[in-house]
């Protein structure tokens, strides 16, 4: 046991959180995992960690979990395109972050790493042909959806804590792919829909693809080398959605969707879905409006700061997509047996 190297990980059952735990354990850390009551803990089954059941919104739960820890990786967040009550985004993402920061300060931890999102970065430079960096601030009117807005507010709580002396660094992952995406997240849903033939077309957009294990490693680098109060984009390769689908086709041997959906059509369908299903029927829309808005936005990012200051070195996008395909196939997310056999043949070649 090395109590001087014990980390609390919130959001431990999530895609990025479980990858951070995997990276910490491989680096010799002891880990306490804060587990949300009722959460699916299948992703933690192979990890030797101390589990503490609790809610990040509960000061008592967070204090109990952080006891004995020297570092905190605050990964927990409500990341969805739609919930019945939008106030939940602020309760989890802002109030929960405040509780973690308060407990970390009281416990005197050596370092906090806060997981934010590139969704809080301005994208005006991208339309001009340049990828966005940590210094690009957003037009608040373009922070679509309660998730982005709540994370933007939470970032300012983190920066406030840093200004008051808490040693905290921020990381901003782009679009992670790879093993362990049980939900799946929006990025994983893209892969699953492609594998199951549920993606007849695509929109003209630009995304940044990164392996989830590189994002996790970036968290550890930010802990060891990051400056307090400084943010770091953890990204990979900027690819169009058409290029991503072409990579998936090359990995699996499945056909690439050829129909390009106009932005106006995507937004119109999402508006109808959001109005009828979300607002009138009070159920998750099949085509969330926030997702449609994101899909019609160019989202290219430059991770040079993390490379230069942290030694961050992500692998190619092809590897991230390949590992994502392999995991979803092995985990049984592909429903068509013919496709399943073809993907396995392709994966083994």
Structure overview:
There is one protein chain. The protein has 349 residues and is of the alpha/beta class. It has a domain at 3-180 and 209-246 and 296-315: Rossmann fold, CATH 3.40.50.720. It has 13 helices and twelve strands. The strands form three sheets. It has a seven-stranded parallel beta sheet with strand order 3-2-1-4-5-6-10, sandwiched between helices. The protein has a three-stranded mixed beta sheet with strand order 7-9-11. Strands 8-12 form a two-stranded parallel sheet. Strand 1 (6-10), helix 1 and strand 2 (30-35) form a beta-alpha-beta unit. Helix 3 runs parallel beside helix 5.
Low-pLDDT stretches: none
Q: Kindly report the average pLDDT value.
A: 88
| Known CATH architecture of the domain at 3-180 and 209-246 and 296-315 | 3-Layer(aba) Sandwich
CATH-derived topology of the domain at 3-180 and 209-246 and 296-315: Rossmann fold
The helix tally amounts to 13
Strand order of the largest sheet: 3-2-1-4-5-6-10
Beta content = 5-15%
Under CATH at level 1, the class of the domain at 3-180 and 209-246 and 296-315 stands as Alpha Beta
SSE succession: EHEEHEHEHHEEHEEHEEHEHHHHH
Shape: globular
Number of DSSP strands? 12
Helix/strand-derived class?
alpha/beta
Span from first to last CA? 42 Å
Major β-sheet, in short? 7 strands, parallel
Q: Please tell me how large the radius of gyration is.
A: 20 Å
The helicity comes to 40-55%
CATH superfamily (homologous) name of the domain at 3-180 and 209-246 and 296-315: NAD(P)-binding Rossmann-like Domain
